[in-house]
Amino acid sequence: ITGCELEKLPDGTVKSLTVFDEYGFDGEDFIAFNSDPQQWIDKNPKAEETKREWDQQTERNQFLQHYLQTCMHWISTFNNTKKSIQNQAPPDVHVFVKKAPDQSKLVLSCLATGFYPRDIEMNIRLDETVLEKQTSSGIRPNADGSFQMRSSVKIDANHKGSYDCLVIHSSLTQTRPVLTVWTINHQTFNGIAAALVIFLPVIGCCIYQ
């Protein structure tokens, strides 16, 4: 049996208590490694000769001690990964539009916020085709430990079509996408497309992995 004994602290971290490498023979305890003095403990009279031989193998014992001590790192990594999975938060997705300097254009933006963990993919699409020349804010932290990201793209104010925001994040576990599209209204008001002042409710298209 090879492994380590750990204590989980209130803050979720782990503390190493001991590591062990133990062997049995014929259903009885035989010999065990003591990592502190790097010596073997004979737990059976039949193990005395084996103990003397293995105590002389200093390089092997040093390697074994290092190998066993990495047990704490492995379990800490597993514990943190498990904690991250349990604490996942889905993104809250919003789509909005504003006037561009070129009045024939609009700036369509998609904002995903409140998600955890950090990795996320986001694309603005026209008729389910990803648009080119999108600009991104990159992934930024929120004060509560979650993250946010914004992508924007210039679109033709007079182009007929349906736009949506496609977001892929590990917290999204459903297989059916949720989609509400943003559609340009071609009526005009004071020479500016009505879409500039009408904010239709939009939910990002969420594809779950």
Automatic annotation (TrEMBL):
InterPro entries: Ig-like_dom, Ig-like_dom_sf, Ig-like_fold, Ig/MHC_CS, Ig_C1-set, MHC_class-I_related, MHC_I-like_Ag-recog, MHC_I-like_Ag-recog_sf. Keywords: Glycoprotein, Immunoglobulin domain, Membrane, Transmembrane, Transmembrane helix. PROSITE patterns: IG_LIKE, IG_MHC. Gene3D superfamilies: Immunoglobulins, MHC class I-like antigen recognition-like. The chain crosses the membrane at residues 189-208. GO terms for biological process: immune response. It comes from the Eukaryota. PANTHER family: LOC571647 PROTEIN-RELATED (PTHR16675:SF193), MHC CLASS I-RELATED (PTHR16675). This is Ig-like domain-containing protein. It comes from Sinocyclocheilus rhinocerous.
